[in-house]
């Protein structure tokens, strides 16, 4: 007989590329019940309270995603990732001055993005997974600084969005439903105004 109290296994997060782990269907359904006016609220009203198992799952997800979402920029490591891209896509020989200018452009484009996101963006470029870019890039060459930044920011945004979503569900408050038998009758003075 299966143990119904066992928590479902969470999908592993790849080291460089965030794929937001799927929420159990019960949490997806609960998230859908948030009122439209509370969509952006950090503390939404939930149709019901979270179960201990759901709280545990959400806490684990927060622990997995927070290091990615809250990572600080590391320009040196980010530029090392750019260097790997240039090794994978060698360009015609450039002068030392041209190479320095090019690296400065990448440094400016990536100075405020975590290195893990740059590494994930590089991997996406190599795999050709660049649909987020509005232009049709030539994947035979390394990405331009703005292209690499757009991919890296997309990766980082996914992590930050997932973290916000998980924390928001954890902080949600269950709506209080008062059964009819416990509801107080309106004061008699209000009945005429209510049409009663």
Describe it.
The protein has 196 residues and is mostly helical. It contains 6 helices and 2 strands, in the order αβαααααβ. The protein has a two-stranded parallel sheet. The longest helix has 27 residues, at 145-171. It is elongated and about 90 Å long. The protein starts with 24 loop residues before the first helix and ends in a 22-residue tail after the last strand. The model is unreliable at 1-18 (pLDDT under 50).
Gist?
By secondary structure, the protein is mostly helical. The chain is 48% helix and 2% strand. The protein has helices spanning 25-32, 52-69, 75-88, 96-110, 115-127, 145-171; strands spanning 45-46, 173-174.
Give the topology, please.
Layout: H1 25-32, E1 45-46, H2 52-69, H3 75-88, H4 96-110, H5 115-127, H6 145-171, E2 173-174
Helix pairs in contact: 2-6, 3-4, 3-5, 4-6, 5-6
